Amino acid sequence: MRGISIGLGLALSCMALSGAGPISPHASYALHCSGCHTMSGGGAPEAGIPDFRNSVGNIAGSEAGRTYMMHVPGVVSAGLTDAEIAEVMNYVLDAWGAGASPFTAAEVTRRRAVAVGDVVAERRRVAAELSGAGIPTAQYPWP
Ligand code: HEC
């Protein structure tokens, strides 16, 4: 009997971790994003993880930037629904986006359907567009 209830407890916690149960945007960020981006949003620029601070909100202020954000590998591979992507991205914008407008699930769906071939080239285009308008973005070492 005891073995069964321990097994059930484990199964339930695994379900929560795999996304079968609703988790908060904070928990979703901690689980899916913080391993690379860190809980402070500082990332690891020397390892190619851009700093969110003073940057991600600027990217989200650009039309092309908002589409780019939906195609970064960490978001594509997280296995989240469009609504969950909107939630976790809005957590990022709330924390480090300085007033950028939030995503709706419908906007995520629309932007994910846009083909973005080379995400690194796209990031460079967005950064050049913003820099031309005097708006900074975080350092980005990818070739
Ligand atoms: C395995 C590491 C990793 C994980 C996990 C990860 N990312 Fe990233 N993220 C990156 C890297 C590397 C970049 C730089 C873009 C690229 O991949 O070319 C990036 C870029 C971004 C950017 C654009 C920032 C910029 O300055 O270009 C956003 C927004 C972002 N990630 C959000 C997320 C969110 C939200 C999650 C969680 C659902 C997440 N990432 C998970 C590695 C990761």
Automatic annotation (TrEMBL):
The keyword Membrane does not apply. Keywords: Heme, Iron, Metal-binding, Signal. It comes from the Bacteria. One of its GO terms (molecular function) is metal ion binding. Residues 1-20 form the signal peptide. Residues 16-96 form the Cytochrome c domain. InterPro entries: Cyt_c-like_dom (IPR009056), Cyt_c-like_dom_sf (IPR036909). The keyword Transmembrane helix does not apply. This is Cytochrome C. It comes from Amaricoccus solimangrovi.
